[in-house]
Specification:
- It is built from 16 helices and four strands.
- Strands 1-2 form a two-stranded antiparallel ribbon. Strands 3-4 form a two-stranded antiparallel ribbon.
- By secondary structure, it is an all-alpha fold.
Length: 437
């Protein structure tokens, strides 16, 4: 009898969840967006892990590294240029997009897709032996991984799971499990001075770090503020409130506070790191998204003003960078033979050795097709996403332009997963405001 009541209650709750929220009728998903979505799930989401890949395997699972290759650090210990280079990075961002899609469709299939991506993220933070380590990806055996993560992997990991636990999709048990893991990872990173720990896999020595959030740059400031703030929001623990409060007022070596650094936005980052000006917009999407959520959570007028200024600066930075190019797609081969770079391989004991090797391998590989898709798809889509995140409400013109552009792209010639940035940008352009986004 109890079981029947629980079953009936679940049916009622699912029925209620299937009814779109009042006040804003979700638009139908254009056919081009839908086709892109289906293609991404068919060719770019690794099974059974639920982790988004960098490029398609073309139906050949042997293109993923083996457990032995991950252990040896081949082609390099940071897994650069393999299909699983950005598993935590891309999966965390895509999870937010799928959550937004679910809010439109209320379909059980989209609910399960979001849950699958969340499980993939949890797996990335559960396979290492080092507290605070978030793997770039995990192989099909559910445990094998490369030993070097980064701040660009860990930030979307936090962001995606934060959006997921507030989405209404997971039950209380799953929410508690995820929040516990988020606290565990954040506490370890905090204890390490906000550095991102690596895992001593293979030849990689213990005590290695790759990137961090303790610097005076926009990425570091936006990410560390976000993580501290959401942990207080999720746990109610005054210790995290104190961490956030201290981060707000601490003066950095350049004399600025973190909110002041964040206010400069992406342009300020480019002043500090001019090498990132031309082809690294994609690493800023998560910071723009984090600042949007920080603004929604912030009650201090002065701090909120800095966050609003940052979002506007991000939009300005992307002006002139939002034109997606399609003419060059498929004009050069997109190489998936990453094992050819093993000719240059040697054991790597430190993150520095791994990065140096990977950069030499990239030059040797000379993957022109990959570069074209990054330049003409990934970067403009990310600029469009940043623009949508910086808008206070939905932008029908931006959404319409995105849908038309996506419909014009010959996706059968595209090998990278860059389309997911476009799909997520379309969902973001539909948002009715920052708090619910």
């Amino acid at each position: 009898m109890v079981t029947n009541k629980k079953s009936s209650l679940r049916s009622i709750l699912m029925l209620i969840a299937s009814i779109p929220a009042l006040g804003f009728a979700s638009p139908p998903i254009p056919s081009g967006i839908e086709a892109l979505h289906q293609g991404l799930w068919k060719g770019f989401v690794a099974e059974p892990q639920g982790i988004l890949l960098d490029y398609t395997l073309g139906g050949d699972p042997s293109l993923l590294p083996s457990a032995e290759e991950a252990l040896a650090g081949k082609p390099n210990a940071i897994s650069w240029w393999t299909p699983m280079e950005n598993g935590a990075f891309f999966t965390g961002l895509y999870l937010d997009g799928i959550i937004q899609r679910f809010r439109m469709t209320r379909s059980e299939a989209d609910r399960e897709k979001a849950a699958k991506l969340a499980r993939g993220l949890m797996l990335c933070a559960s396979v290492g032996t080092t507290p605070g380590f978030v793997a770039r990806g995990v192989l099909a055996d559910g445990k094998s991984h490369y030993g070097i993560g980064s701040d660009d992997q860990t930030a979307p990991w936090f962001y995606g799971l934060w959006r997921y636990v507030r989405s209404g999709i997971p039950d209380e048990a799953e929410k508690n499990q995820i929040v516990t893991k988020m606290v565990e990872v954040a506490a370890a990173i905090h204890a390490a001075g906000w550095q991102m720990p690596c895992d001593p896999v293979g030849d990689l020595q213990p005590g290695q770090y790759r990137g961090g959030w303790n610097g005076s740059d926009y990425r570091s400031a936006s990410r560390v503020l976000f993580v501290a703030r959401i942990l207080f929001e999720l746990t109610g623990d005054p210790a995290w409130e104190k961490v956030y409060a201290n981060l707000l007022v601490e003066k950095m070596p350049d004399g600025q506070t973190r909110p002041e650094i964040v206010a400069r936005g992406i342009p300020g980052e480019w002043e500090e790191h001019p090498a990132l000006l031309y082809d690294h917009i994609y690493i800023y999407v998560v910071s723009q998204a984090m600042v949007a959520d920080l603004l929604a959570l912030e009650s201090r007028v002065d701090v909120a003003g800095h966050y609003a200024e940052s979002l506007a600066a991000g939009v300005r930075a992307c002006e002139g960078r939002t034109k997606v190019g399609v003419s060059g797609i498929g004009s050069e081969p997109f190489r998936t033979d990453w094992r050819s770079m093993n000719k240059l391989w040697h054991p790597q004991q430190t993150t520095g050795q791994a990065v140096n090797l990977a950069l030499k391998q990239l030059e040797f590989w000379n993957n022109k097709g990959r570069g074209i898709e990054a330049q003409f798809l990934r970067e403009p889509f990310c600029a469009l996403w940043i623009t949508a995140l910086g808008s206070p409400k939905h932008d029908p013109e931006l959404a319409r332009n995105l849908a038309e552009t996506i419909s014009s792209i010959p996706w059968d010639k595209v090998s990278s997963s860059s389309g997911f940035f476009g799909e997520c940008a379309w969902y973001a352009a539909q948002s009715e405001g920052r708090p619910g986004r």
